[in-house]
Amino acid sequence: MHKQTGIVELLRQLIKTHEEETSVTYGELVKSIGVQAYGLIIILFALPSALPISVVPGFSFIFGLPIVFIALHIIAAKPSLWLPTALANRTVETNQLKKVINKTLPYLSSIEHLLKPRWSFFTSPTMERLHGIVLLGLSFLLLLPIPFSNFIFATLIILFGLGISENDGVVLVLAYIGSFIYALFLTSLTRELFRLFAT
Predict the structure, then answer these.
(1) What backbone phi and psi angles, to 5 degrees, belong to 57?
(2) Around Cβ 28, how many Cβ atoms within 10 Å?
(3) Alpha-carbon separation of residue 153 from 15, 49, 82, 114 (angstroms)
(4) Is residue 160 a contact partner of residue 175, using CB atoms and an 8 Å limit?
(5) Is 68:74 a contact under the CB 8 Å cutoff?
(6) Annotated domain spans of the chain
(7) DSSP code of 19?
(8) Are 149 and 141 in contact (CB under 8 A)?
(9) According to the lineage, what is the superkingdom (predicted)?
(10) Using CA atoms, how far apart are residues 105 and 148, in angstroms rounded to an integer?
(11) Cα 55 to Cα 154: distance, rounded to the nearest angstrom
């Protein structure tokens, strides 16, 4: 069986492919990534929100919106990724893309050797739709201006992306556990805020 290219190598190839260009469209990024599009594109668009640069107003919305459409594709079990024309034609500066990728490559390199196909139940078609539903919820939360939460939402999305890209059920379970814990925290926080303003 042919082994799929690792995430780190794919990101390096992505930089090399577009290094001579001043900017690249979202559509070109999707096309460049190819068969591992879902998992890697999820990671790619979530990475900026996991960095300190995401504190810039609107930054998470710009990079989070494509994740909404990716999640919808996963739920619908679409074999290939399609973005609306307006979104596919949106551009990102190549230097900005390189900066984001280069900042995260050392971290991804340190964990990539731990990733491998396992716990296949969590990578089954039925579970993939569930992944899509949770990703959709996380991506909507990423779009909202919730203070100091972008890093957490983006990290959980990246975990799902890693699990999907590498067919790693263990990573997907960790993503679910993290999502559940943070959902409990947000629910508790919301209740306390309602109680505070109601008194």
Answers:
(1) -55, 130
(2) 18
(3) 25, 8, 23, 22
(4) yes
(5) no
(6) 7-198
(7) T
(8) yes
(9) Bacteria
(10) 23
(11) 13
Q: What is the pLDDT of residues 139-156, one digit of tens each?
A: 888 887 776 678 888 899
> Which pLDDT score is estimated for 22?
85
Query: How is residue 168 written in tokens?
Result: 């790693």
**Cα 43 from Cα 33, distance rounded (Å):** 12
User: Which alpha helices (H) appear in the chain, and where do they start and end?
Assistant: 7-17, 26-33, 37-46, 59-75, 85-88, 94-112, 125-143, 150-166, 169-198
Is it the case that residue 138 has pLDDT exceeding 80? yes
Length of the chain: 199
Locate 95 and state its tokens.
Answer: 């230097």
Give the residue, 32 or 86, on which the prediction is more confident.
Answer: 86
Mean pLDDT calculated for residue range 31-58 = 70
Tokens coding 128? 């993939």
Name which of 113, 164, 111 is nearest 134 in CA terms: 164
Q: What are the tokens at 72?
A: 């919808």
Contacts for 143 with CB less than 8 Å, ≥ 6 apart: 60, 61, 64, 65, 68
**At residue 2, does pLDDT exceed 70?**
no
Contact assessment for residue 169 and residue 118, using Cβ atoms and an 8 Å cutoff: yes
The residue behind tokens 């999707």 is 30
Give the phi and the psi of residue 86 in degrees, each rounded to 5: -60, -35
Q: Residue 17 carries which DSSP code? A: H
Q: Which two tokens stand for residue 175?
A: 């993503």
pLDDT(58) > 70: no
